[in-house]
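F.,

This is the one I mentioned.
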């Protein structure tokens, strides 16, 4: 599990830390000055730490590791208290509390907490420099196909973006997945999501396929997000232009995505 270094800091090191405390008071604070930024940055850093604690706590809880859960719950409470104090000081225009940084090592879990376990999200971000005859007035859209069980598939398409060969689609689609179903897990191992980029036909003309992108799902067995830019293809041939897409799940299909990190941890002085 994640070990948290909780040993007291030896006195010699403590002096070094004392030297690095930032002491800020609101009276000295010229509004154009960086020092006003410090409060904002403290708040951002503490909010980030709180999120990390909560995600890691929830992971330990889901794993049934009570000790790990309690450790991160307690750490979350400490960080929350620090965050409240910083926000209170900022609101009241009082001097910001003194603080220092400590090195902390964690195993953290990457998890897209905005999704449920039965959702997969496909984001069609944007197209880049499609190879078309009329780049200034081409109207394009993307068809998306995601394989489901029994030869079914989830199909959808983006809105049409007009008059550009580098369109921003920025559209999100949710697919229902059955992550514990063996057959469904096989889809992730073997298959991919198909994106077809079409140019909208004019009067009495049908829409034309500009190119296709196939994104393999296998990385989602061990990661909770695929985010990349892909060449448009015709079979095995590149046709020019790219498509940026993201595919996200709450947790990877087979494992949790763990990463060992060492963080500079912001701590308020007692």
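My design for it:
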């Amino acid at each position: 599990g994640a070990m948290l270094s909780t040993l007291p800091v030896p006195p010699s090191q403590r002096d070094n830390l004392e030297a690095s405390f930032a002491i800020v008071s609101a009276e000295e604070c010229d509004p154009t000055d960086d020092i006003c930024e410090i409060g904002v940055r403290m708040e951002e850093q503490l909010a980030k730490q709180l999120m990390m604690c909560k995600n890691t706590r929830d992971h330990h809880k889901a794993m049934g590791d009570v000790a790990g859960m309690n450790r991160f719950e307690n750490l979350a409470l400490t960080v929350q208290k620090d965050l409240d104090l910083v926000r209170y000081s900022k609101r009241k225009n009082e001097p910001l509390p003194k603080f220092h940084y400590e090195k902390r090592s964690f195993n953290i879990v990457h998890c897209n907490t905005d999704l449920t376990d039965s959702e997969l999200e496909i984001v069609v971000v944007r197209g880049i420099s499609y190879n078309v005859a009329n780049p200034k007035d081409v109207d394009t859209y993307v068809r998306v196909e995601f394989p489901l069980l029994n030869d079914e598939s989830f199909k959808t398409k983006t809105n049409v973006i007009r008059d550009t060969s580098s369109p921003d689609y920025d559209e999100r689609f949710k697919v229902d997945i059955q992550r514990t179903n063996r057959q469904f897990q096989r889809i992730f191992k073997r298959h991919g999501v198909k994106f077809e980029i079409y140019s909208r036909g004019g009067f009495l003309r049908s829409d034309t396929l500009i190119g296709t992108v196939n994104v393999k799902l296998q990385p989602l067995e061990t990661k909770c997000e695929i985010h990349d830019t892909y060449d448009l293809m015709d079979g095995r041939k590149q046709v020019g232009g790219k498509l940026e897409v993201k595919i996200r799940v709450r947790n990877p299909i087979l494992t949790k995505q763990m990463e060992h990190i060492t963080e500079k941890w912001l701590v308020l002085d007692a």
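The chain has a mean pLDDT of 86.

Talk soon.
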